[in-house]
Structures are given as structure tokens and as C-alpha cells.
Structure to design on (121 residues):
């Protein structure tokens, strides 16, 4: 998918993240963040469509987020591309106005990333 079809611009952001599916708790690292979702670098990839709670902090704005999200794409580990980070893209399902405003404000001041992946959040 080309960048002109992407709904939100992604920005570099790395932090530890907690994932709660209701029956399991996982951890991973973010690589990028948008106002619509984020990429989680992890080997514990959940199935497409899995609903989970994503918990992460943004120290620059002294804010912690706890957002319901869904897995919308995955990148599995590949022996022929060991330098590519495995993980999953999650789309935020419900953002309160305050959360949306805080994320948008933070992201507007970050470096933009450009990828040619098949995600659109």
C-alpha cells in the first residue's frame, strides 16, 4: 500500500509496551507510533483480529496510555531476512478525545517515518 492511502503518518517511537488479551499478558517494544496505532516488535505474535489492551507510556508528555486495539497485520520472522524485525501492527479501536489530542500533539513534533508496508493506520 502506498503512503498516500495511509490514514495516519507514523513516527519513530521506541518504548516497552504491555499487551493484555484478557487471558494472557505479553510485553514487546514499539518501533513506531501513529494516532491510529503502532507497531509492536515481538516474537509473540497474536492472530489477526485479536483484540487486546495496549499499555505504554510517553515520558515526553508525562502520559500513560491504556488503549483497546486489534491486530491488523503481522510480520513473522523470516530466515531469509533475519534483519527484519518480527512483530505486529495494531490499530487503536477506541481513543477518548483527551487521548487523541495528547497523541496527536506529541506526534506532530516527531520525525516522520516512511515505509512501504501493507498497513494503513
Amino acid at each position: 500500500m502506498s503512503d498516500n492511502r495511509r490514514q495516519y503518518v507514523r513516527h519513530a517511537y521506541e518504548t516497552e509496551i504491555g499487551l493484555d488479551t484478557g487471558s494472557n499478558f505479553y510485553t514487546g517494544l514499539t518501533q513506531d507510533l501513529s494516532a491510529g496505532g503502532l507497531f509492536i516488535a515481538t516474537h509473540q505474535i497474536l492472530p489477526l483480529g485479536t483484540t487486546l489492551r495496549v499499555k505504554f507510556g510517553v515520558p515526553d508528555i508525562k502520559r500513560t496510555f491504556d488503549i483497546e486495539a486489534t491486530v491488523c497485520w503481522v510480520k513473522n520472522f523470516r530466515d531469509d531476512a533475519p534483519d527484519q524485525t518480527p512483530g505486529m501492527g495494531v490499530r487503536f479501536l477506541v481513543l477518548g478525545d483527551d487521548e487523541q489530542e495528547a497523541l496527536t500533539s506529541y506526534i506532530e513534533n516527531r520525525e516522520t517515518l516512511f515505509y512501504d508496508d501493507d498497513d494503513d493506520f
